Amino acid sequence: MVESNRSSFGFRLAVFNQAFKEQVNAQFGFFQPVKTVDPKVEEAVTQLIKLKRYIKQSEDSVKKMISGMKTTMNAQQQFSIVSKDAKIKRDDNNLKKKLTLISDALSSNSKDIECLYLPAMENFYDWLKTFLDKAITDAEESVTKYNNIRTEMDTIIQIIDQTKEKISAEVAGSQEQRRLSLLLKEHEQTYKIKKARYDLLTEQVIQKVELLETKRKADMPNYLQSMYDSMRIFHDQSLKHFSESTSNEISIPTPSTVSQ
After folding, report:
1. CATH tag, 35-242
2. Among 36, 130, 251, 260, which residue's Cβ finds the most Cβ atoms within 10 Å?
């Protein structure tokens, strides 16, 4: 029991040492520790980082758009009230008529923003936030678990190699050699357990990143199309509200596809 506890403590200490070496090496390059690397996982992690950055930038952009549209809506509502108040105080019937048209147009336009344009943008924002906070975070947690088990794998490999060297240095058949041989079997069993866990997490990380990319390609174009459709209808409605405006010259581009 004492030997087992000592071995367990030694392994945990070795894992800490391995993790420390990797961290220092990443920053300064002082050590060259053993590092198990799966190219497919490394590629998936790189893709995950890029995807997270892209979704975060999209979320920030849509959030600013929503804020801007709400500010516009509130300004139109306030100006609509001001126009109505100004109309009451004027004697010029022609001016009253124009102020009435402006007030009604601003009021209708602000309602279109609230009921038509904003919902599509807010739905897209909610999807981006959920994708970022839940789906990507879940994948990142799997990456963290993968890195932890990879460090443990590297550690046990080093311990096995060191134990084999000690065995070869002992007198054949000696008590110390037998003790080290039993210890080696324990280390090899630990390696099998860690390797099985490592293989599972390797597959898990790759699959989760692939699923994230598949979902992005499937869902994101639909949300963008919904935003575009709302923008087009809102634009057409605005032309009706402000019939004398020259905004009919404005060209609204189609949303760029993100499925490529």
Report:
1. 1.20.1270.60
2. 36
